[in-house]
Structures are given as C-alpha cells and as structure tokens.
Design goal:
Elements (H helix, E strand, L loop, with lengths): L3 E2 L4 E2 L6 E2 L10 E2 L6 H9 L4 H7 L5 H14 L6
Antiparallel strand pairs: 1-2, 3-4
Helix pairs in contact: 1-3
Amino acid sequence: MADLDTHAGIDWIACELIEQIPGKVSGRPIVRGTRIMPEGIVNSFEMGDSIEDIHEDWPSLSIDQIKRLIEFAHAHREQPNR
C-alpha cells in the first residue's frame, strides 16, 4: 500500500528523493538520508515562504532538492472529485 500524505493525497514514495524506513520517523516518508518530512517543505512554500526561506530552515537540503519536492507535490497531488 502506498503511503499517501493524507492532506494532499501525494504518494511520496514515487519521488526519487524520498525513502521510507520502518522505525525511522514512525515509518513516514522522509527526504532520503534525513529525518525531514517532505510535506513540511511543501506546506512552508504554500504558506508563502520563498525557496530561500525554506533553505534557511532546512539547510541540509539543496535548493534543487527543495524545488524538486515542491514540483513533485504539485504534479502528483490528487485532484478532488467534481
């Protein structure tokens, strides 16, 4: 079963930057090699933070990684049924 972000309906495991390890951050999807959950990055961007602001908050991620996570989220978010 895919692990979806329940708020956004995103299958994070489909992103090459994401890993899921049982017992690490309760088995939630995280940015590979970190304990950073991708929805925090995307939520910050959607709340108005710039890429540079996000990079200041999570300096272990590159600008390119941050951009890729945001792009992935926007491309893979489930659309509401109409």
